[in-house]
Records
---
Amino acid sequence: MTSTLITNIGTLVTNDPSCPGLLGLVEDAAVVLDGSVVTWTGRAADAPAADQRVDAGGRALLPGFVDSHAHLVFAGDRTAEFNARMSGQSYSAGGIRTTVAATRAATDAELDANVARFVGEALRQGTTTVECKSGYGLTVADEARALRIAAAHTAETTYLGAHVVAPEFADDPAGYVDLVTGEMLDACAPHARWVDVFCEQGAFDGDQARAVLTAGIERGLTPRVHANQLSHGPGVQLAVELGAASADHCTHLTDADVAALAGSATVATLLPGAEFSTRAPYPDARRLLDAGATVALSTDCNPGSSFTSSMAFCIAVAVREMGMTPDEAVHAATAGGARALRRTDVGHISPGARADLLLLDAPSPVHLAYRPGVPLTAAVWRAGVREV
Ligand SMILES: [Zn+2]
């Protein structure tokens, strides 16, 4: 193994609670990597020798972003739908079903290339861990295929057969839930770590969502829930009750929902790209943080409602529109995402952590919000390998 000393770091974001501030900042810092892990952090003046030396030039170094919510296994795009929506026109064509049809028609190689493209796109913007859901196949074979392909690119794979009711079951939603909790789950569970459901009017109600999540839990999957995105509903309470790692979206919350999240280990994952891309009201991160909930920020990268892979964009929007401070938003995009995936090896920079690092072309992590839309990636390491 070769050790690498990254020194002359202007501001190091450790997310280590024993260091100052929410972000555990160290000024004039250095980090040593050995193989795939971080072995030392501290003041540059105290750093040990290493085989290689990288001069950070006074820039900021932070943990690679942890994007805990993305839908990357799909084909086609929905440019026309977005254009119509942003032009004030109604658009009646298929929404998710457009993507389901294109995804089913794609070859394995086409889907694999698409996932590789978006994982690479995210990596070049500093994302070193990305979760990936199924949900555009909606048949036993197509959902299993989506998860098999996703698993070649990330360990964080999520079975989302319960994204919407498959078109073939439009008149028999109960039959579709039976499929999702039966034969489809059997085919998908070997390729998935998580089980998810879109609990929403027009998708799956509280009882159906409970059935889907409970069946997944019985097969060894851990739940996460698309909850309270478009309206108030039972999703958040169900997520907390079933011990979900995360309740995602959390846009429409009652006081009881906020209290439930704050009193639990379930992370509130906010996805501002979705509200941005649909001109919808943003979730109130300030309310959740003030109540004591753990907040994560993620992209929700998908071709319909949030076609961005940029965590920096989500940070900027969260600061401008959702009441988060820059420190809170950076923490949510790194340590928050790790909590939402129940990962202790990523989202922080301390000895023993996986060496997932983002060197910003800026002196401070605040620049992620202060300089929106500007490419700020100077270098990226994933598991100790320099990727950018
Ligand atoms: Zn989603």
---
Amino acid sequence: MTDFATLDTAQQTYRIADIAAAAGEDLTHLPVILRILLENVLRHAGEDGGAAAAAILAWLTHGRSDREITFYPSRVLMHDTTCGPAFVDIAGLRASLAEAGGDPKRLNPVIPVDVSTDHSIGVDVFAHPNAMKLNMQHELKRNGERYRFMKWASAALDNVRVHPPGTGIMHTLNLERLASVVTSVTRDGTVWAAPDTLIGTDSHTPMINGIGVLAWGVGGLEAESVMFGMPVTMRVPDVVGVRLTGRLREGLLATDLALTVTERLRRIDLADRFVEFFGPGVSALSTGDRAVVANMAPEFGANSGYFPIDARTLEYLTQTGRSPPQIELIEAYARRQRLWFDPEASPRYTETITLDLDKVEVSFAGPRRPQDRIAASRTVDALAAVLNNNAAMGGGEPRDGAVAIAAITSCTNTSDPRLLIAAGLLARRARQFGLTPPAWVKTSLAPGSPTAERYLRRAGLLDDLEALGFGIVGYGCMTCIGNSGPLTPAMANAVRDRGIAPVAVLSGNRNFPGRVHSQIELSFLASPPMVVACALAGDVRRDILRDPIGRNAAGDEIRLADLWPTGVEIDAVLATAREVGDYADAYNAAEASADWAAFEAPASALFPWDEASTYIRRPPFANLGNGTRLGRYTAAPLLVVGDDVTTDHISPAGAIPANSEAGDYLIARGEDQHDLNVFASRRGNWEVMLRGLFTNKSARNLLAPDLVPGTTIHAGSGERLSLRIAAERYAKEGRSVVLVAGERYGMGSSRDWAAKGVALLGVRSVLALSFERIHRSNLIGMGILPLRLPRDRRPQDLGLHPDDVIEIDALPEAIRPRAEVSVQILRQGSRLDSFVAVSAVETGLESETLRAGGLLPLMLRRAQSESELNSRVLSVDECGIRD
Ligand code: SF4
């Protein structure tokens, strides 16, 4: 029997699921994350609350558990390039349901879904007084059809709210505006108070963990099922505790800490685990610091990087304009439910790590992975390790290591006002010394929200940044997601004519080769002021901490120490620059976009598909499908790849080249070959996405050393074909195909197209040494069985030939969490190898999904039978924020 109680604030009496009563003395030992999960199962379990609580409390015995729980997040967060395919799926499901004689409106979100329009805007124009306006014009022109579709979705579907272009990056919007931290939920006339929880179709969703909101990133398919009222099913998770001690030294910034945490935690296996920060060092961090660290949870490999609620959280919420009654509710609820942070507490964790904040140093990460942190002075060594040519800079032209892009970008760091103020102060000093970046550097400032402009302008720092080329180019992901636009002519010529290897320096969280720009293989992550410093230096072939980075008019050498602001200076400026009213004013102005209002959208429950559209096509998988992909079968290896294959490698997000299969397809349909837009904006068109698979130039098919990315060798004929054509050939021949991969397959972003595309190739199973969490779930969502290879079966060493046959015994009835699956490799009819792989399936619902052939057929079947869908109708009042 579940324990319920009441909580009184000055405004209201709330009903609460009483976790202290349910857990008793054990509550002290539970990590805060598990307290939130406990509340969730209690509130949703009704009379079964006692059993649900027992499943979580049993975790305390060993600090881990195999028990399965369900979790109902209170809301969903998406962005324009993940909501697009999700809404296209829903439009496709509605069409299939209507064709089968059902009511399409039965497929409707039952919890709030917020969509930010941030992932498409590019840096077409920079260092220009009208850069932001011009970039926004390009954005609206390029993406008009998609945006009209999003407007259709927000009108046709319940509970969907779209935040138009110019409202900022989803995670900043969530931090500054959407998150209520403690939410009130009205159910059957009773007003409940409960933790604000969410899932987001973006791997950096855990940024909101910085203010005590439990959230993590999921694939679009899982989000679709959650918005339709299905729970997230999961094992009671492992929770790794990171004990923070000490405090950051003078001059150190949140970025340095986040890169240090990423380096440290990436050394341990955090797959499918949650991280919670505790200990006295937490109190020494601002909420901005915490959010920057939490943002990089996917880079350190965890589901979350959770910081509990404390006085600093309330201070931040007040500064960002949350109402006094809401602040009162948060504090009262957190204290009553023992979610309030106690620096002396030491709960039980699956594993505990200690990190001393005093030891953090000024850092970069790169040049190829975010976990490769280096001391800021060591960029020259990091470059030497990857470049053959060690020629020094000189002659006034860019050489290897020259900074092609210096971008203050990304939700990671631009959401923390201290970091932007620090960049502005450094720019101010540089300007006083007369320093400017060389002409080859492409400079930009793309804050996470329009609020940043207000405090930077009020402090007079926007003028200083603009003087150095760091004027605001827009509010969105921009360079961080690879929409960095063309390089400067000087740099483009140097790359084309002399083949130099330039670098990008950005305040983002990812630097995989080609992510930031297709011509840039080497990128360094650093704090916003460090980005400005590197732009001024023009290259990273120097000790940025000690070597001169420029000269003043008198010819004196200027070093970083002459420019770097102190913590006291940053805080003093911030105290006068920021006003509480800025947040609501800036967002309200952006939400009232006349351009957005001018988009006309169809008003109908069913979306009117247009055969001529190159953006939105009815997806071939949003229907009941052909049944399960499980079974006992033999398959050809369509593709064999090595370690660290990211979702960027699998399904690119960046520009669509004119000389590519996807380009050919679009040009044949009348699109301008000079402006084909980016793959991320075409995710509503499966034909385009299919043609982009594995075409990233770093994606190597190990079936032959000289295979062009995106191609394979067809077994039998030996012909070299694009993956799409080879897959079509195999399908016609009635032959199955599989994909073989190394460690961490599917790392990177949450994009479900990396799984949808592989499903369209007909792949029945992916055999990998290990999977990144979200991608593993996306594969299952598309009905593809992820199989873990034994540690001694590295794909690189298996020596697979195109003609080899892989025999897999995965009958539907045998597939359950971590089931053993026998695999044999045959060459010319003889057995070459045999081993046991393990199904990377974690829950019963995942097994059911695989048996149904994927989540979309499963949801459609449930909708047809009028079962669980729409049965859990809640009305969520986000305490005045949703009005
Ligand atoms: S990490 Fe980059 S791409 Fe992802 S939401 Fe943040 S800014 Fe956008």
---
Amino acid sequence: MSQTLAEPIARLIEEFGKLPGVGPKTAQRLTFYLLRQPAEEAQLLAQAIVDVKEQIILCGVCFNLSATDPCQFCAAAGRDHAQICVVEEPLDILAIDRTGTFKGVYHVLHGSFSPMEGVLEDDLRIRELVERVRQGAVEEVILATNATVEGEATANLVRLRLRPLGVRVTRLAQGLPIGSDLEYADDYTLTRALEGRREY
Ligand SMILES: [Zn+2]
């Protein structure tokens, strides 16, 4: 970082630079953009960041990010609570729900099984899913983990844990590009993958 920059400017550039997908150049551009904006604009951004950290919690049922507990999906009477779609990250819910194909509820694992990277079974919300299935009138669990090596390993692990319960377990159909994250799949591909899901 250039020493000719005032300390607060250098600090904001450094903070922006920690964000995913933001390189040094973009961090500088964002910082100087904000410097040109009225103080109220910067205040709105700062407040939005504080609010999201203070007000967003995990749904106690599905572990989705939410301002309420239970979340909008778990609380909805119009959704099919006998069908649970299991995803790796909250963003995946956005992708699937955007298609309008799925009317059930969700379960967020918060990651994928990856011992090489230190993510073990207990780091994921698998036990909570098993407990949900054990308690409720769940008829089908759809494994919608990513089409990656880790996503496949995760689906396999969840299936193993659910097997003793005898619940129907399905997996999204092939068609999602191999090695891809669900959140980047287009609506058409996702809809086909959901409709073509198979026993797993
Ligand atoms: Zn929920």
---
Amino acid sequence: MRLALQDRLFVLTGAGISAESGLATFRGSGGLWNGHRVEEVATPEAWDADPELVWRFYSMRRRDALAAQPNAAHTALARIEEKLGDRFYLCTQNVDDLHERAGSLRIHHMHGTLFQSRCVRCNKSFPDQSFYETPDLPTCKTCASPIRPHIVWFGEIPLDMDNIYRELDCATTLLVVGTSGSVYPAAGFVDIANRRGIRTIYIGPEEPLNTHAFDDIILSPATQALPTMIELVP
Ligand SMILES: [Zn+2]
């Protein structure tokens, strides 16, 4: 795939790219954690019912993410950003920090991030790498309300959608990596891109149901396809 330096690249990444670093993402996977369905640990209702259980789940995910390493796909995206600068935008559904650790700068976590927490009342997020695995849960220093993971749970609205759509509006290429092309949010982004005549590319090991919606389909794990697929032409 050739990309000119005047192109504006919008990249959407999802679970598949983290899975290649050995991280389970749980979201939408139908997977279980310690015998709990994901709805029991990643919804506002779960938080209301048992915040300690929710914090155990996210503490475990913090541990797993800290132990994982960015892979060749993360690194490839950081390299492309080095070349494109402000003409690059990365929107990720992943809550780990592997993109940042690979060197990505222009990144938006639409489903929140593992390494931030926020007060349920003040709503201000802050960096947090702590593990909360006892009944002694954290509270806000300002208002004493509970501190929750800065994660978009099932049933909550993704973060800063306005900015995502603004970036999509000025892109010339949409690259979807490691997430199903046929379900939200990728499917919605691809629809917008098609209406605007933006080039659309899909990378993943499985063919998406909406194959026709993409200009290019690369059936491959991202770690294999991404490092060599993009050629920047002046
Ligand atoms: Zn507060």
